[in-house]
Write a structure and sequence with these properties.
30 strands, 3 helices, 361 residues
Length: 361
């Protein structure tokens, strides 16, 4: 499929649409895609409460000592019992338990066997006692360790020289999404743990990237693979059963605007300035800002959502500063005030970040 060709046609349909609703459906290649016309939205910015997205939250201060200092978190992976922290800098992957207690570093920086330079993605399997790591560029393998940090045999990838990729492992099936920079042969593929190919979606010319400037965002929540490749201004779903990319959501702006799409079980989100949230069922949309009502309405500038968990990261010094301004607010519920007081009394401004972790509804 030539994705740019169909998007051009889609824009033409937008221009001539008589639908005055801000959110409506368009049929593209036999699939219904939800569209938000930002120009028709009320400009009022509403609060989006974390409690609307998650069942409950855990407040997890990451343990702090010289051997586990965390500087600049890029991604956090959460399982029932573990937290994996991947940093933007060239620093080893760190493993914590769900209470924030440091367990170990996984692998180390270098160019030797079982070593890595820069990481981009990870997956933790507690049941099988394995953690897998993927490097940033020209990737030919998944690094493989046990949960004590001992190296195991690497997992070979069927396609080689992958860039800015993401992967997920369910049972013995690995699903990989790769930005077509060095390897322009494939965009999505599934394989077995031994490298045997199951199926693939080739990278057509309109998907090619000439540099690493673009981004490929992939998330897996409630059995849905959500993909936003910034070369294409649409959010797609990957359907393994049909081995197809299915257009799911698009925001139409009155003028060119850079945005990033996210998908939650009940919502589509357009990260822009200001950001937009669309309820999939009611088709209601509005501009929003996220508030952490579990901590007295604290601002949430960014949250991660993957593997059915929502994660918010707060730097300790800023968290303490903001909580100090909220603690004496007259309308705080006792449970919220107690939670804030506990954090203020237990966290130091030089500590590692504090995570707020919630299970998606």
């Amino acid at each position: 499929m030539n994705y740019k060709t169909y998007l051009t046609g889609l824009c033409c349909m937008f221009l001539f649409s008589c639908n005055e609703e801000a959110v409506y459906e368009e049929t593209v290649n036999g699939h219904k895609m939800l569209v938000c016309d930002a120009g028709k939205l009320n400009r009022e910015v509403k609060d989006l409460l974390l409690s609307e997205l998650v069942e409950s939250v855990e407040i997890v201060p990451l343990e702090t000592h010289d051997s586990c200092l965390v500087k600049n978190i890029w991604k956090v992976v959460v399982t029932d019992g573990l937290i994996g922290v991947l940093e933007q800098d060239r620093r080893p992957y760190k493993l914590f338990d769900r209470k924030g207690k440091f367990i170990t570093e996984i692998g180390q920086i270098g160019q030797g066997p079982h070593e890595y330079r820069t990481l981009i993605c990870s997956a933790i399997n507690e049941k099988n006692n394995r953690i897998r790591l993927m490097e940033f560029a020209r990737v030919n393998r998944l690094l493989n360790y046990d949960l004590e940090g001992n190296p195991c045999d690497d997992i070979p990838l069927h396609f080689q020289s992958l860039d800015k990729a993401s992967f997920y492992i369910e049972d013995d099936v690995i699903t990989v999404f790769s930005m077509p920079v060095t390897n322009r042969e494939v965009f999505v593929f599934q394989q077995k743990l031994d490298g045997e190919l199951i199926q693939a979606i080739p990278a057509t010319e309109d998907l090619y990237a000439n540099s690493y400037d673009g981004e490929l965002f992939v998330f897996h929540n409630k059995d849905t693979y959500s993909i936003h490749y910034t070369n294409l201004d649409t959010l797609f779903n990957y359907d393994p059963a049909s081995n197809k990319l299915i257009p799911a959501y698009h925001t139409r702006f009155e003028s060119d605007a850079f945005c990033i799409y996210r998908e939650l079980p009940d919502y589509y989100i357009t990260l822009s300035n200001p950001s937009i949230i669309v309820n999939k069922k009611t088709k209601q949309a509005n501009y929003y800002k996220t508030k952490n009502d579990f901590l007295g309405g604290l601002d949430v500038n960014y949250f991660m959502c993957d593997n059915d968990y929502l994660i918010v990261r707060y730097e300790s010094f800023k968290l303490l500063e903001d909580l100090g301004k909220i603690i004496n607010s007259p309308n705080l519920k006792k449970s919220v005030k107690d939670r804030i007081s506990s954090l203020i009394n237990s966290v130091d401004e030089d500590d590692n970040p504090v995570l707020v972790i919630g299970k998606l509804k």
